[in-house]
């Protein structure tokens, strides 16, 4: 990346809950253009690390940099503006909305500003909505779920929901996406579709990904490098082949 120090650089990051260090001095880099996997036994601190990087949680200490700029503790919407996104499960209140409507919500649709403008320029709103709907349909086509556009989000399968989460990142100009486990409870066919979408977003649109994942086949197909966390810090980093042979990693998994 521009500064030769990783697109994302995490330095001595710590997040404590009470006296417990969920993230305990983590140091890592995510290079631009990679699909980086973050793995490790349950309780290793992966989700907490994601949440700190994405501004959902404030760190207890340490720094996070993006392209060399200190972004530590910035709120999610500011990071969103820089193209740093963390995917989230579709919240309950959005499950009765359609898939297309869920996508149209993303670029800050429901702000006070929009409500105000509704008063002063209904026409412009209507044309913006049409543009948004078009964009949503393009996204759905890219993800090969255009047939689900009018389905309620709550009716989607686990894998289809993951595709919709990915779709939400495509409604804005994402640069790096932090993606929570896609493998859990998703059938092979859909998992391959999700994998294809991630690879295409990476290759065709230049997305960088950091994914928390447990499915080794999925990681082997998509991810390089693999970063292993245990007990709140980074234990090892390498290709999946290197990681599988690493004694410390094997021990960390056996220890749980
Ligand atoms: P992973 O994603 O690797 O499974 P987590 O980041 O979810 O790990 O959790 C790391 C540790 O921090 C776990 O022991 C978990 O119980 C603890 N933890 C996570 N969030 C909180 C919280 N809000 N309050 C207290 N403990 C937490």
Automatic annotation (TrEMBL):
PROSITE patterns: ABC_TRANSPORTER_1, ABC_TRANSPORTER_2. Signal peptide: none annotated. SUPFAM superfamilies: P-loop containing nucleoside triphosphate hydrolases. InterPro entries: AAA+_ATPase, ABC_AA/LPS_Transport, ABC_transporter-like_ATP-bd, ABC_transporter-like_CS, BCA_ABC_TP_C, P-loop_NTPase. GO terms for cellular component: plasma membrane. The keyword ATP-binding applies. Keywords: ATP-binding, Nucleotide-binding, Transport. Pfam families: ABC_tran, BCA_ABC_TP_C. Residues 8-256 form the ABC transporter domain. The keyword ATP-binding applies. Gene3D superfamilies: P-loop containing nucleotide triphosphate hydrolases. This is ABC transporter ATP-binding protein. It comes from Litoreibacter roseus.
């Amino acid at each position: 990346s521009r500064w030769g120090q990783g697109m994302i650089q995490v330095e001595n990051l710590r997040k404590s809950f009470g006296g417990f260090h969920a993230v305990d001095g983590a140091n890592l880099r995510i290079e631009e253009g990679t699909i980086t996997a973050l793995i490790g036994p349950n309780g290793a601190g992966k989700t907490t690390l994601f949440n700190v990087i994405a501004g959902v949680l404030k760190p207890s200490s340490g720094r996070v940099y993006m392209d060399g700029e200190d972004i530590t503790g910035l709120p999610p919407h500011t990071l969103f503006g820089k193209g740093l996104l963390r995917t989230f499960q579709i919240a309950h209140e959005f499950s009765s909305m359609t898939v297309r409507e869920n996508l149209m919500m993303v670029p800050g649709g429901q702000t006070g500003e929009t409500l105000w403008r509704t008063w002063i320029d209904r026409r412009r709103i209507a044309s913006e909505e049409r543009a948004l709907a078009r964009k949503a349909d393009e996204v759905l086509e890219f993800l090969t779920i255009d047939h689900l556009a009018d389905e309620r989000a709550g009716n989607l399968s686990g894998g289809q929901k993951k595709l919709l989460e990915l779709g939400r990142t495509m409604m804005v100009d994402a640069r790096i996406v932090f993606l929570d486990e896609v493998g859990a409870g998703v059938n092979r066919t859909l998992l391959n579709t999700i994998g294809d979408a991630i690879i295409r977003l990476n290759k065709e649109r230049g997305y960088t990904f950091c994914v928390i994942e447990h499915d080794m086949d999925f990681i082997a197909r998509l991810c390089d490098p693999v970063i292993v966390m245990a007990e709140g810090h980074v234990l090892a980093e390498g290709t999946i082949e290197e990681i599988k042979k690493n004694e410390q990693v094997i021990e960390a998994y056996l220890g749980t």
